[in-house]
Amino acid sequence: MAAYDFNFLLATDSYKITHYKQYPPDINKVYSYFECRRRKGDRFKEVVFFGLQYLLKKYISGQVVTEEKIQQAKLIYQLHFKQSVFDEEGWRRILEKHDGRLPIRIKAIPEGKIIPRGNVLFTVENTDPEFYWLTNYIETMLVQMWYPITVATISWEFKKILAKYLKATSGSLDGLEYKLHDFGYRGVSSQESAALGGAAHLVNFCSTDTVAGLLMAQQYYSCSMAGFSIPAAEHSTIISWGRNREKEAFEYLLEQFPSGPISIVSDSYDIFKACKHIWGDKLKERVMERKEGSTVVIRPDSGDPQETVIEVLRILEESFGSSLNSVGYKLLPSCIRIIQGDGIDIHSIEEILKKLKDEGWSAENLVFGCGSALLQKINRDTLNCAFKCSYVETKGKGMDVYKQPVTDPSKGSKRGRLSLSRNSLGFIETVERGNGKPEEDMLVTVFENGTIVHEYSLEEVRKNARLWEEDLAQLQHNEDALNGDPLHDECIMNGVH
What we know:
Structural class: alpha+beta
Largest sheet: 7 strands, antiparallel
Helix content: 25-40%
Number of strands: 18
Radius of gyration: 26 Å
Number of helices: 18
Strand order of the largest sheet: 14-13-1-5-3-17-18
Distance between the termini: 34 Å
Low-confidence stretches: 484-497
Strand content: 15-25%
Shape: elongated
């Protein structure tokens, strides 16, 4: 149910207030769609669909039009435009005819599904011919889907990279869902961004410090606890002991948290001396005598990530030793591990993991944290998200419509009613011009006439987005092909899943 104090009539771009006067006379249906457009050289070939259910529940479902909100919007727009352009009567008709509920139908792919770029992700159309202008009025809000989709997609890319190296250096994907910890809460623009982005990351992982994301998953996706964390130190809790008492600070934390894993930032002064002389000498026995599962996780937080991680591993190996796992890569004792959270993005994480592999270390030795590169250093153009009209009806007669700018062919839009299905080769593709078969359509009606008609739990979303071990061979095959086969590149761009 939409928030009581939220005025849907004011949740659009200003110019859309005037669009009801711009459509052709006698038009009675406007049908539009959302996609992440594909362009040559895109870093991300697929997208993870997530977040629509939140937007529908919070802002669009139930009664969103009241007389009070009509009057508020009328006043605001009169002052804003300095003339009377607001469709007061149109909104009052929605209130009277539909009890303030939106006569709109939205069909979307199931949340969590991984879809190749350039395909329809959801469609929107009016269900009452009187309110044709409502379809694109709602564009502004629905295009904000770019954010959770982009975060979920970047998180998925992290997961593929981590899976690749974890499998190669350990022989399995055990613990993959805890390999990337969300550090992004403080780096986002708002509480809502933290909640939506934090929840999007939890589609792929179960490790987070962004509490807002947990609450969103609980409230909007029926998950009582979507992610987990451990006790961890920050610089203030270390340096407040003074430079000469760093060892006492570390020791005190071990006493305060005698069981369960604990993460301790160790670069307040000199990460290498801390690892060699404190962790590897003075507190070595304290670390090794901790119970099974009570791992001490060392956190470097400065310097070149590649070089720092390798050097910390080397120093810890000198003190604690190492063993070879089942596939011949080095592994520290289970009592000690590393978390690298500084300077992590999808490029640096692969560089670090490749360096570790080349040096003979298993990816089991460390986990990663990521903040702004996960939740903030993105925008709508990261995945080229767009919402376009593709079909209209005038006096009941349908017409496929599209845009095709001569100055940028990549901004050309799709035509007609759309569906999403697998072709004869098994690739997902968008079928245009109403030629799709309803029984094969992957788009599901999720919203109709003010009511959410299909919901997903986070468990279902995660199942849709799950990375299976058998997928890794296909991922490597796709990567190799994309690097050298233009024809295969076209196939992948049009649907590897």
